[in-house]
Amino acid sequence: MHPKTHAILNLFHQREGFVSGEALSRELAVSRTAIWKHIKTLREAGYVIEAIPSRGYQLTATPDNLSAEEIERHLSSAIIGRRLICLAETTSTNSDAFRLAEQGAPEGAVVFADTQSGGKGRMGRRWVSPPGVNLYCSVILRPEIMPYEAPQLTFLSAVAVARAIELTTPIIPEIKWPNDVLVRGRKIAGLLNEMSAETDGTNFVILGMGINLNMAANQFPSDMRYPATSLCLELGRAVERVPFAATLLNELDRLYNEFQVYGFRPVREEWQQRCNAYGRELTVSDGDCEITRGAFEGIDDDGALLVRSRKGLERILSGDVRIL
């Protein structure tokens, strides 16, 4: 967005009621004709701007488009969101963020996309990403941690998603190990972390998040392994994507700051409080092959799943969990 167009948008957000063309022209030091052209650009971007002769212009509605300008208005974060890249379409936000991180993008940079043609899920699965309805984003972090500690950040992003849902809706979600957020047992969000590391340290970590905000029932694929839902289906109304996106980044920022100061323990404790499986019987499988079954006893300091089976207390590093 052109700086002058952005400045006009900021003035609309700062002031109530109509703003005269003369006032806009004076404050931005441009002609009335230039003001009209910037107003036209905003309208073409989906902003509803009323114009009345002798009164001026008034912003009456904003589009539900994921734009850096709109998301930034709601941000209070210190690190997460310091740079926002909003794309209409991409193959995968994780792939984009990984490439940007390799090129030196700063910690806290976030890639959003309105749709993905090759969204990634765990274990090489596809994440269906229809346009205009959901939230697909990837965050670049550069924590000073060892590579074996990087999986801890998956739990951090799961808690951030759960918090964002609670802060923007009346829904109380649950979390399933290792990277699913559920509502009434149905998957509403998935997380995928990727990293670049060396033997003695971590170069960067990519936190990938896909949240089903306004997806309709007929947009879910018929071959899904587990039932899924969206906030819209649960609420019976649409959820505004921009405020949700900003809330998610704000909560992720708070959790990341806490992680840097206190380590994994506070995140681990909150994750376990939100987990839907504590004390329940479950199975863990690798594809169609069952690894183990037993009672869920939480996660350890590395984020590994702890299962009390016939063999004793087992520590599981990967697999699909199904609650019995």
Automatic annotation (TrEMBL):
Biotin binds at S92, T93, N94, Q116, K187. InterPro entries: aa-tRNA-synth_II/BPL/LPL (IPR045864), ArsR-like_HTH (IPR011991), Bifunct_BirA (IPR030855), Biotin_CoA_COase_ligase (IPR004408), BPL_C (IPR003142), BPL_LPL_catalytic (IPR004143), HTH_11 (IPR013196), Transcriptional_repressor_C (IPR008988). It catalyses: biotin + L-lysyl-[protein] + ATP = N(6)-biotinyl-L-lysyl-[protein] + AMP + diphosphate + H(+). PROSITE patterns: BPL_LPL_CATALYTIC. It is an enzyme of class 6 (ligase). Its EC number is 6.3.4.15. Residues 21-40 bind DNA. Keywords: ATP-binding, Biotin, DNA-binding, Ligase, Nucleotide-binding, Repressor, Transcription, Transcription regulation. CDD domains: BPL, HTH_ARSR. The keyword ATP-binding applies. Residues 69-260 form the BPL/LPL catalytic domain. The keyword Lipid metabolism does not apply. GO terms for molecular function: biotin--[biotin carboxyl-carrier protein] ligase activity. Pfam families: BPL_C (PF02237), BPL_LplA_LipB (PF03099), HTH_11 (PF08279). Acts both as a biotin--[acetyl-CoA-carboxylase] ligase and a repressor. Belongs to the biotin--protein ligase family. This is Bifunctional ligase/repressor BirA. It comes from Pelotalea chapellei. The gene is birA.
